[in-house]
């Protein structure tokens, strides 16, 4: 049974059906793990995402399996965006691997996408949401994210042993 989405989603802009949200233009956001297109996700993460260059498909599959994945699907059902949440459901949630395919940007989808993800219990029931990024910081700031200097540390025990090349530019801004 469909219900109108709550505040923040835009009045009448979306309809929520048990883990699935439909944008007025036909895009669908879903947290159904079966809707993740691992081929498309792996292609993006291993070739375009600065934080995971050369990651293997197996590692992508494991990351999806052990997190809460959200897929963005075009009106034709094409997989065009993604993010995942890792959480203990009490103190923190970590938002990662966020992207919208270049061909589908400049349509307000990133804002719509984040509106819904940040309104889920995975986010609203915890004390803090963490995000490590050097891109789209202005977008995230509109949602209340802030750069916190000198408070993040990274421990890398044997990181990416299966990767020939790994790009750690991610931690430059920390």
Automatic annotation (TrEMBL):
SUPFAM superfamilies reported in the protein's UniProt record = Acyl-CoA N-acyltransferases (Nat)
Give start and end of each N-acetyltransferase domain: 28-172
Pfam families in the cross-refs: Acetyltransf_7
Instruction: Extract the GO molecular function terms from the UniProt entry.
Output: acyltransferase activity, transferring groups other than amino-acyl groups
Give a yes or no for keyword Transferase in this entry.
yes
- Please name the InterPro entries in this protein's record: Acetyltransferase_Butenolide (IPR053144), Acyl_CoA_acyltransferase (IPR016181), GNAT_dom (IPR000182)
Q: Keyword set for this entry? A: Transferase
Give a yes or no for keyword Transferase in this entry.
yes
User: Which CDD domains does the protein's record reference?
Assistant: NAT_SF
**Name assigned to this protein:** Acetyltransferase, GNAT superfamily protein
The source organism is: Acanthamoeba castellanii (strain ATCC 30010 / Neff)
């Amino acid at each position: 049974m469909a219900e109108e989405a709550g505040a923040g989603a835009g009045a009448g802009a979306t309809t929520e059906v048990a883990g699935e949200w439909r944008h007025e233009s036909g895009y669908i956001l879903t947290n159904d793990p079966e809707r993740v297109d691992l081929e498309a996700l792996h292609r993006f993460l291993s070739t375009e995402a600065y934080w995971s260059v050369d990651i293997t498909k197996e590692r992508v599959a494991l990351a999806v399996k052990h997190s809460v994945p959200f897929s963005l699907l075009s009106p034709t059902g094409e997989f065009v965006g993604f993010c995942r949440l890792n959480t203990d459901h009490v103190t923190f949630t970590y938002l990662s691997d966020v992207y919208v395919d270049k061909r589908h940007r400049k349509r307000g989808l990133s804002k719509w996408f984040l509106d819904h993800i940040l309104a889920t219990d995975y986010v609203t029931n915890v004390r803090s949401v963490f995000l490590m990024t050097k891109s789209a910081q202005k977008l995230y700031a509109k949602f209340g994210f802030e750069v916190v200097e000198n408070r993040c540390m990274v421990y890398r025990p044997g990181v990416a042993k299966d990767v020939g090349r790994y790009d750690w530019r991610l931690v430059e801004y920390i």
